[in-house]
Amino acid sequence: MDIVHATTVHQRGDTRILLKECQSLAKDHRYSVTLWVKDGLPPETNAKVKIQSIGDAPANRTKRFLSGILSLAINSTRRKPDIIHIHDPELITLIPLLKALRVSVIFDMHENVPKDIASKHYLSPNQKSSIHLLYKIFERILTLCDFVIFAENSYKSNYTWLSSKVTILNYPKTESIPKRSPQKDFTFGYLGAVSHNRGIVPAIRAVKRLRETGISATFLCIGPIDPKVSSDPDFTEALNEGWLNAPGRIRADEAWPQIARCQVGLAILDREENFITSYPTKLFEYMSIGIPVITSDFPLYRAVVDKADCGLTVPPEDQIKIFQAMKLLATDDSLCTQLGERGRQSVQEHYSWNSQEKKLQSLYSLLYSNKTGVPI
């Protein structure tokens, strides 16, 4: 069966799309799995997954939106795969075309888009309202999908009108993530988008204060850097002084070994609705590595941290408590080791990708049976 995963926004090495979903499906000999991306790079094969670019990625946001839709429409019409698994909200506009081509369609909802629109600081209130209304109208097209996949449990309550839906959480592939191997200097690590709403600047200020008290702490911050962060005085000062390392976006298999050399993982996200109701994948990745976590005190996050007893939770707006939590761990190596080991064990028992892989494979087995008439 010919399966295509399609994204015109995400990187070809995206952890959820390639390393989890595509690779999990490629294990089944019944499926030929291809990942379509829009990056202009040469084709390659990764763990039996064929990766192909369907065009260059324009820098302009509007052009990227329109050209992505057009590229997928052209390539889908030419190829007519058995299943197309789409990962970008704008691509749902193509669902009627894909169904007319007799292609089964899965939409993978990585985030709650209406809530995400509300958090876009570069949009005016009128723009947010208009875009939100348009998306709520367009997303009714999802009723044509064979299945909608939610990346978070919280999304279901907003989509009660969908009948064919399943939640596949973004838990880590524990076998792909290295174990803790801390370096000599006490280092706080962060992996993800480097933006103001993800607590980067408060973390930098806390590390700076630790250093002023005589604690030789450093900060490793891996991920695409928002221009507003890169121009922030605290960020540039820390870079110039040499205790902040911010290499930008790198591949996950290169990033995890670097995070594994840290003593603590940070996920101190702001109180935005999409953050409050969604697990930060980095939380489970830190736990899988075996390092303690400091994360926002949202009930969803706190339930995980308290159950595993693997770290500390803090109010993301409270600079003093962030500093106190970081100081506590930076001055107690034994506590760090104990918290980290409990987190690693908890991920292996409760939060590994293996449980979600089975749900994904069951979903595709159902579609395979419907397509071929072969019983599951």
What is the succession of H and E elements?
EHEEEHEHEHHEEEHEHHEHEHHEHEHHH
Secondary structure: number of strands:
14
**What is the tally of helical segments?**
15
Structural class: alpha/beta
State the distance separating the first and last CA atoms. 14 Å
Low-confidence stretches: none
Assign a percent range to the helix content: 40-55%
Major beta sheet, strand line-up: 3-4-2-1-5-6-7-8
According to CATH, what is the topology of the largest domain?
Rossmann fold
Secondary-structure map with pairings?
Elements: E1 2-6, H1 15-26, E2 32-37, E3 44-46, E4 49-53, H2 61-79, E5 83-86, H3 95-100, E6 104-109, H4 113-118, H5 125-138, E7 147-150, E8 165-167, E9 186-191, H6 200-212, E10 217-222, H7 227-230, H8 233-241, E11 244-248, H9 252-259, E12 264-267, H10 273-276, H11 281-289, E13 293-296, H12 299-308, E14 311-314, H13 319-330, H14 333-350, H15 353-372
Parallel strand pairs: 1-2, 1-5, 2-4, 5-6, 6-7, 7-8, 9-10, 9-12, 10-11, 12-13, 13-14
Antiparallel strand pairs: 3-4
Which structural traits does this protein have?
Rossmann fold, 376 residues, six-stranded parallel β-sheet, 14 strands, single chain
Task: Describe this protein's structure.
By secondary structure, the chain is an alpha/beta fold. It has two domains: 190 residues, Rossmann fold (3-Layer(aba) Sandwich), CATH 3.40.50; 177 residues, 3-Layer(aba) Sandwich (Rossmann fold). Helix content is 44%, strand content 17%. The protein contains 15 helices and 14 strands. The strands form two sheets. An eight-stranded mixed β-sheet has the order 3-4-2-1-5-6-7-8. A six-stranded parallel β-sheet has the order 11-10-9-12-13-14, with helices on both faces. The longest helix is centred in the last third of the chain and has 20 residues. It is globular, with a radius of gyration of 21 Å. It starts with a strand and ends with a helix. The mean pLDDT is 94.
